[in-house]
Write a sequence for this structure.
């Protein structure tokens, strides 16, 4: 719900083996409530950029503003969902995980549980509030993670390949669910993926990055009405265009999933 | 299988193992190869055990020993857990204490008993300090490893959700390190239990299970020695199964942070 400005962001990793470029001179704007997907080949700096926006990494140059305010570290204006299922706290139930942020905010117990139940309902897990993470499937755990990131009501949701480790069918369900959640909550979303169909399905706009060093190669607006049909001609056209930017042979069919 | 069914089965299995061991012992004792004074029959040991329990003397000895163990073990937890956490969190603390810990740890606690006796005399203080010494290192080491193995993604996630240092500590690091901390408590208690008996043999006067064994040797009372060993084994077993097993079932097993035994 807040706009984001990314200005000339550059980061170089210092490793024992020398300097490794992370991202270089990345600039783009994100509108309030816009759903942005970042795609690009492995190692092009997608995670690096997302971690800078999340405040886990400090750029060597450039700056990021969220709602006009420069980012200086992590903050509760942003919710983060990671790829790793292990992100949930195993010692807390689904409900306990979702209430964590509210607890940190000092919200009273009864109120935070009401909010958490509502968030779990949003991701269709109202029946599993009392379950511990190890009793939930991977897809359910990622849904709890989404509910947890939304519960304290951040303006921005940052997601780094949250569904990449799921099987194709579950992944389809999760994409539909996320599209619904976004329609209801209208968060500003930055979503990293290297799956082109996923980007076309979810995004208002896709940022294509290229590696060595990580830079923005193209920005593509996806002007398809929602809910989107992954089998429609327009959808496939968009996908083809995007694949072209990624340097794939546009005729080679990447399986739609 | 239900949890209760599982527990009943494991109790039955334990009973079978113990019965088999007792049968082997009884065969040896009755074989006639050994003097009955050295290897008394089980019935004699059991009679002695019941008699000493009934007159309260064995119970009183056990209470003394337990008091020393719990005191020393409590101190070991009070020092080992915070120090282990500090070592894992702050390099300066780690750099300072690690050489010290590495040098002290291999010294058997038993080897310190004579020295501690000279310093602290005979009685509770010396035995408690020996227990403390023996129990601290496993607690410290396991806590240290546990905190270092807390998944960084939990810290990141908690940080995003606005956790301050205090919440991070109590709500993420401690539960995150809990499998190691519980293992540390188990090992630490075991070491304490072993150390107390040894220390009591030399440094206790008149009370304690270790002292009972040592004193019985003077009069060739092997039945008393064996009865005391049964009590030592019994108490250790109860703590292991009920206390630590119970803590584990209520926490890390329930959370799926460690897997329960196969099958
Ligand atoms: N912690 C790190 N230390 C050193 N180099 C790193 C580190 N993290 C990433 N890099 C390097 O920075 C570059 C960008 O990495 P990044 O993880 O951002 O890529 P990515 O686009 O997220 O890739 P993937 O799709 O595989 O997740 C890569 O060359 C990578 O090797
Ligand atoms: Mg990545």
């Amino acid at each position: 719900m807040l706009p984001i400005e990314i200005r000339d962001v550059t980061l170089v990793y210092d490793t024992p083996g020398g300097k490794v470029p992370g991202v270089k001179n990345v600039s783009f704007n994100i509108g309030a409530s816009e759903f942005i997907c970042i795609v690009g080949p492995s190692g092009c700096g997608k995670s690096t950029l997302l971690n800078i926006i999340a405040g886990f990494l400090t750029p060597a140059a450039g700056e990021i503003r969220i709602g006009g305010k420069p980012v200086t570290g992590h903050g509760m204006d942003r919710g983060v969902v990671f790829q790793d299922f292990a992100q949930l706290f195993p010692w807390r139930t689904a409900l306990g995980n979702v209430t964590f942020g509210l607890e940190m905010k000092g919200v009273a117990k009864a109120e935070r549980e009401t909010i958490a139940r509502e968030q779990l309902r949003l991701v269709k897990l109202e029946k599993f509030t009392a379950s511990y993470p190890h009793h939930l499937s991977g897809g359910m755990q990622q849904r709890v993670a989404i509910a947890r990131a939304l519960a304290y009501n951040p303006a921005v949701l940052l997601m780094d390949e949250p569904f990449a480790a799921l099987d194709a069918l579950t992944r389809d369900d999760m994409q539909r669910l996320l599209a619904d959640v976004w329609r209801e909550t209208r968060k500003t979303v930055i979503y990293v993926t290297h799956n082109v169909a996923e980007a076309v399905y979810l995004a208002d706009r896709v940022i294509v990055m290229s590696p060595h060093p990580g830079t923005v190669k193209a920005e593509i607006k996806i002007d398809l009405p929602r809910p989107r049909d992954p089998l429609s001609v327009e959808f496939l056209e968009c996908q083809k265009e995007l694949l072209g930017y990624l340097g794939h042979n546009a005729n080679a069919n990447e399986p739609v999933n | 299988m239900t949890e209760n069914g599982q527990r009943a089965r494991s109790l039955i299995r334990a009973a079978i193992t113990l019965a088999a061991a007792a049968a082997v012992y009884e065969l040896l004792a009755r074989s006639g190869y050994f003097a009955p004074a050295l290897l008394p029959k089980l019935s004699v040991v059991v009679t002695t055990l019941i008699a000493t329990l009934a007159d309260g003397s064995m119970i009183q000895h056990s209470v003394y020993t337990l008091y020393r163990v719990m005191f020393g073990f409590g101190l070991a937890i009070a020092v080992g857990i915070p120090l282990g956490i500090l070592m894992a969190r702050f390099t300066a603390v780690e750099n300072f204490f690690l050489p010290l810990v590495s040098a002290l740890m291999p010294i058997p606690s038993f080897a310190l008993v004579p020295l501690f006796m000279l310093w602290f005399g005979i009685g509770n203080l010396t035995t408690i300090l020996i227990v403390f010494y023996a129990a601290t290192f496993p607690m410290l080491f396991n806590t240290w490893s546990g905190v270092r193995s807390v998944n960084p993604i939990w810290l990141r996630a908690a940080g995003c959700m606005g956790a301050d240092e205090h919440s991070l500590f109590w709500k993420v690091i401690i539960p995150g390190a809990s499998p190691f901390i519980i293992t540390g408590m188990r090992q630490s208690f075991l070491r304490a239990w072993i150390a107390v008996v040894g220390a009591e043999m030399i440094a206790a006067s008149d009370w304690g299970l270790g002292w009972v064994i040592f004193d019985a040797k003077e009069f060739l009372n092997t039945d008393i020695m064996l009865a005391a060993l049964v009590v030592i084994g019994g108490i250790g077993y109860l703590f292991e199964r009920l206390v630590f097993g119970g803590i584990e079932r209520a926490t890390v097993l329930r959370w799926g942070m460690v897997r329960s035994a196969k099958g």
Q: What stands out?
A: Chain A touches chain B at residues 54, 56, 74-76, 78-80, 82, 84, 86-87, 89-91, 100-101, 103-105, 132-135, 148-149, 152 (CB under 8 Å). The helical segments of chain A are 46-54, 94-105, 109-122, 138-151, 168-185, 196-202, 233-245. Residues 1-77+155-257 of chain A form a domain with the Rossmann fold fold (CATH 3.40.50.300). Chain A is about 35% helix and 25% strand.
